[in-house]
Amino acid sequence: MKLIFAGTPVFAQLALQALHEAGHEIALVLSRPDKPAQRGQKLLASPVKQWAQAHGIEVWQPRTLRDPEVTQRLQGVGCQAMVVAAYGLLLPPDVLAVPPLGCLNIHASLLPRWRGAAPIQRAVQASDAQTGITIMQMDVGLDTGPIRLVRPMPIGRDETSGSVHDRLAVLGARAIVEAISLLEADRLPMAAQPADGITHAGKIVKADALIDWSRPAQAIVDQLRAFDPAPGCVAELARLPGTALKLWRARVVEPTPQVMPQVEAQVGTVEPGTVIGMHEGALRVACGGPDQAGAVDLLELQRAGGRRLPATEFVAGFPIGAGDRLQSPAATVPPPAHG
């Protein structure tokens, strides 16, 4: 089938590669304009652009799709369908109407759950046990179009958004090849999205990096999982304001009979975010409100300019002990660079 492909990051690049290897004609690739990256701020082409150019496929990077000339150029391609994956621009009605068979989107959730910009992170943050890929017929709404194909996938209890992303990217590539094959044969089903179960996956903002230590332990652990590898979660020591730390892996301190009397005795007398001490290679921190006091074990931390380190190694170089308190850094304090 003759296709136009629109996408930008690695998630989309794997889908483009799979379609090409399946024998479909990729007549044109759309990708976001190159962006400054890394310390030198040199312009860096997207993974989709790099792969397409390496395989002799024409790439176009319009800054907007609302120019009438964009629609004219796309019409001139003569494609049968358009595939969209993590492109980064909304498709206006004129563009949606270009392909005779419409525009298919590879969405990284089980719609209608987690419509929007950050479905993977929000699913992990919500402690969802399952996610998946939805191939959706695009309309003018935000992820509101009819469902064409669904492929579910479990989320492991210790998985981060990074590992879920990587598995979904592979699943999405397989799913779109299957969907296009069915579309060619006029056997791809179409069903309206259910009215129940709609949730919205808002884009990631700076506030997502801040930890509210009065929340339950599982919510804090899920927050760290959700924003690993980016943007990460940040904190600072109350006694050293301005020294931003990144917190990565953590686990819930399970309420076993052997553990909880000790934890409850300590947590009940300290403010949430207070360090209880080192326990079995982890930095134990009190959390939860008065009615849900608990603790999390921080397993991996990072200082600005440093590497992600196991808690024991981190504390050896940056002493943190019982009675120290972690808090959200001031808004003016930049988080350490991701490493």
How is this structure best described in words?
This protein is α/β, with parallel strands linked by helices and 339 residues long. The chain folds into two domains: 200 residues, Rossmann fold (3-Layer(aba) Sandwich), CATH 3.40.50.170; 122 residues, Methionyl-tRNA Fmet Formyltransferase, Chain A, domain 2 (Roll), CATH 3.10.25. Helices cover 27% and strands 25% of the residues. It has nine helices and 20 strands. The strands form five sheets. Strands 5-2-1-6-7-9-10 form a seven-stranded mixed beta sheet. A five-stranded antiparallel beta sheet has the order 19-18-13-12-20. Strand 12 and strand 13 form a beta hairpin. The chain starts with a strand and ends in a 12-residue tail after the last strand.
Task: Please describe the structure with a list of short key phrases separated by commas or semicolons.
339 residues, 2 domains, five-stranded antiparallel beta sheet, alpha/beta, Rossmann fold, seven-stranded mixed beta sheet
